[in-house]
Design a protein that fits this description.
2 copies of one chain form a homodimer. Helix content of chain A is 28%, strand content 28%. The first copy, chain A, is built from 10 helices and 15 strands. The first copy, chain A, has helices at residues 14-23, 46-49, 64-67, 84-96, 116-128, 146-151, 174-179, 186-195, 203-214, 298-315; strands spanning 5-10, 29-35, 60-61, 75-78, 100-103, 132-135, 156-168, 220-229, 234-235, 240-241, 246-257, 260-270, 277-285, 288-293, 319-321. In chain A, strand 2, helix 2 and strand 3 (60-61) form a beta-alpha-beta unit. The longest helix of chain A is centred in the last third of the chain and has 18 residues, at 298-315.
């Protein structure tokens, strides 16, 4: 077997911890460092902090410059925030240490349209240092973009693509229920939408990734964020949603070429959502009508895909990449414990 | 837009003709040559021979050595036969002309296990000539292998994978109905299975591709080919299948690690098959339960995926590759007419 790939884990929050728990069980990876600026994590053993119930012999360091040193590791798994503007200095530091980067930053999934200057800067820096950097995750990164693209492989003349994800948040963490507006009034919900605090970050990025691959230039993009209002009481472990209150969010992005709608992404996350699923409908020759029944359960999937990307990022050409640029990503079971 | 990719079409049978019809409509491709040894095709205009209803200004040449010359084209789309042993000299000639190769030869989808020496030879030759060669198609090449691998991207701990394809052959060409045993008696069917004339070539290759990616070494492989017997009359445009006669074929390949079944591929092709679909069931964390309702219609899909692979093969590292080695394959609609 080839030498183990040395990983640094930048960010040990909810997703970062899940990544560490998975990485700790993989035979192809060797965890050599960890960074987190949170005061209550610094100095702790990474294994214990991530909930592994065993020590990994790697301390969490609050100073990235101590961990991110050339030759120190092969790849950084970065998982701190959704905003590319905020995490760009962190990514830059990883690149300057000559390390490939897999990040779960949602806006990094397709940054060229929303952050063109930053994207160019990261790309140039990555090329200078001969490393690759990619943003991934289950959504954005897979179910509403990469998977949909993969399904067009046997098609010609793709005319329109509709991607739907329905998540029953009752089965998920309280944070997800809260940030999708559970139990708010419709008015409160709309205020939070106006403030930008209710919004799934990454839906636009998924659309842009699909558009870039399939259609090229778009003429118009429309977005909407609406409440899912409970027509009868809905309940989770954490919330009682009475009739007329908000059970969750329904977010839609559509893209047009001329007057023709070519892409529609529809995401519903609500307590008690009916028929949870991931679906892709492709109007093409031949048509493709795909559904993943129950949907891809999100909490562990982002962690898994981040790790599954590692071998593909290591072999990729240098630069800032998107998921469509990587060789096929899959879960090589044989490397697991 | 980048310079057009120059293609040579090697084989102008049913699939080869479909490929030519699609290629003729693509703005990113320029057809520069065609080879077919069939006497009734040689000398004809490729467009007319392929059923395009317009001339392409390219004659079909019976002598490959005339068409396959260095600098003559960028890539050969090869579509002649299923048997790798038979087509190897053709592929070799393409490689020796310094051309990348996309082939629909079923056994080329994963040749390392069944034809290890030939695979090594083609790989070495391809590296010497700095070209890439890959076998693809809808099946093998996509629905029962690459797509299943792609679906493991958000998973960890893949324990078992079941892939099912059900095709209602009543909607397909008479050749497919005939070669899957339509209207035979069970005894006649079994004789043809024993002779090797009823068998979907590529099911084993799909399994081996999945196994190589996910599990590594297998301990046992089982294969079966059984008739689908009509319990009531079934009918297509070409056949009346009376009760008790054969409507089609049910072929299964299973793979084991130790005593544990880890992969099961099940293919039914029959007149009047119920619930035609492509389904993938992955036991992992999380589970994935995917279905493509109606299934991916095969006749045009193989042609489409062959063309959609071209940009990925051109950018791939030299050597003999499988679909899991290519960057994500998708249908770039913007290059179509």
């Amino acid at each position: 077997m080839a030498a183990r790939i040395r990983t640094v884990h930048y960010g040990v929050g909810a997703i970062g911890s899940e990544i560490v728990r998975l990485a700790g069980a993989r035979k192809d990876l060797k965890i050599v460092g960890a960074v987190d600026i949170a005061q209550d994590r610094a100095g702790k053993d990474l294994g214990l902090a991530a909930g592994l119930e065993r020590r990994l012999g790697v301390s969490i360091n609050a100073r990235p410059e101590t961990v991110l040193v050339p030759e120190g590791a092969d790849v950084v798994i970065h998982s701190t925030r959704s905003s590319l503007t905020r995490v760009a200095p962190e990514l830059q530091r990883c690149i300057e240490a000559d390390m490939d980067v897999v990040s779960t930053c949602e806006e990094l999934a397709y940054p060229w349209a929303s952050h063109p200057r930053l994207a160019r800067k990261l790309d140039e820096l990555a090329r200078q240092h001969a490393v690759s950097i990619v943003g991934t995750g289950v959504n954005p990164g897979f179910v509403m973009d990469t998977l949909a693209l993969a399904l067009t492989a046997p098609c010609q003349n793709v005319r329109r693509i509709r991607i739907t994800r329905v998540v029953d948040s009752a089965l998920r963490r309280i944070q997800l229920q809260r940030k999708t507006g559970a139990s708010l009034t419709v008015e409160e919900f709309r205020e939070k939408v106006a403030l930008g605090t209710i919004r799934h970050v990454g839906l636009r990025e998924s659309m842009l990734l699909v558009a870039d691959a399939l259609f090229g230039r778009l003429t118009r993009i429309e977005e909407s964020i609406e409440p899912v209002v409970a027509a009868k009481p809905r309940r989770s472990q954490f919330f009682e949603v009475v009739t007329g209150k908000v059970a969750g969010v329904h977010q839609v992005v559509t893209a047009f070429v001329g007057d023709k709608e070519v892409i529609r992404l529809e995401l519903e996350i609500s307590i008690g959502a009916e028929d949870p699923r991931d679906a892709v409908l492709i109007e093409a020759d031949p048509d493709i009508d795909m559904v993943i029944r129950g949907g891809v359960f999100g909490d562990t999937a982002t962690a898994a895909i981040a790790l599954n990307c590692i071998p593909r990022v290591l072999q990729a050409a240098p630069g800032l990449l998107s998921m469509k640029d990587l060789a096929l990503v899959y879960n090589a079971r044989r490397y697991e414990g």
